[in-house]
Amino acid sequence: MIADVLICRRNRQFSPILKFNTRNYYLIVLKKCCMLTKADIEQYFIAEKNAALLFLILGAAAVLIAVVFFIFLKFPIYKGAAWSLIILGTLQMGMGYTIYARSDKQRIDTVYAYDMNPGKLKAEEFPRIKKAIKGITVFLALEFVLLAAGILLIWANRLFFVNMQPGGSAFWVGIGVVFIIQSLVLSGTGYLAYKRGKEYTVKLQHFISKP
After folding, report:
1. Cα–Cα distance between 17 and 118 in angstroms, integer?
2. What number of other Cβ atoms are within 10 A of residue 92's Cβ?
3. Which residues contact 8 (CB under 8 A, 6 or more apart)?
4. Are 40 and 114 in contact, with CB atoms under 8 Å apart?
5. Could you report the per-residue pLDDT of 87-119, keeping only the tens digit for each?
6. Which of 149, 154, 161, 16 is nearest to 88 (CA)?
7. Three-state SS for 185?
8. 82 CB contacts (<8 Å, ≥6 apart)?
9. pLDDT exceeding 90 applies to what percent of the chain?
10. How many other C-beta atoms are found inside a 10 Å radius of the C-beta of residue 38?
11. What is the dihedral of CA 86, 88, 93, 99, to 10 degrees?
């Protein structure tokens, strides 16, 4: 059927029956795409929990690498990298653990509300996910700021890379390198969380708007 629609569109020939069937087909597809099920809720919170666990692991790895830099690699560039890794890694661990610890309870409560108290999804879950998406948007903006700061730090100390000439600080170069790497990694995970949240929000909004 889809192939027939494409062929007719190319030839600009639409029969009334084909138009009617095509319209019904798209309505069915749209309804299926927007329909919220308990499986959708389960999948969303499980994916959120897995992403939080990954966030936690990445933060712990960053702190571990920083400790190695402090103990075994005492050059200024590694010292700068170590300090930024510890700060950013600790923040990652805190955020990851917070989301990971609450995901199961949120999943159970939301699935229960889906069957027993749908009004709770409109009163509590929908505002919560809207607020969460705004938070992710701010998070992504901060990651771009972090990326810009890393690039600026490396540019300001670019003489460090030119035959190690004086005038460039290895310490700040180390910080800049970590800022760039961390911003790219974190913005990737943040974008996936944003995309996942938007899809869940569309389905949730469709569910709560039903009479």
Report:
1. 39
2. 24
3. 14, 15, 18
4. no
5. 999 999 999 999 999 999 999 999 999 989 999
6. 149
7. helix
8. 65, 66, 67, 69, 70, 174
9. 71
10. 12
11. 170
Q: Which amino acid is at 185?
A: V
- CA proximity to 55, closest of 86, 103, 93: 93
The DSSP result for 66-106, as a single string, is HHHHHHH--SHHHHHHHHHHHHHHHHHHHHHHHHHHHHHHH
Query: If you average pLDDT over residues 157-177, what whole number do you get?
Result: 75
Length of the chain: 211
Number of helices (H), then strands (E), in the chain: 7, 0
Interval 4-38: pLDDT, tens = 333 333 444 444 434 444 444 444 444 455 789 99
Q: Kindly state the tokens that stand for 82.
A: 């170590």
**Cα dihedral 210, 37, 132, 87 in deg (nearest 10):** 180
Which residues, including other chains, have CB under 8 Å from residue 76's CB and lie 6 or more apart? Answer: 169, 170, 171, 174
Lowest mean pLDDT among 74-78, 79-83, 97-101, 184-188: 74-78
Q: Which amino acid is at 196?
A: R
Encoded tokens for 50: 């897995």
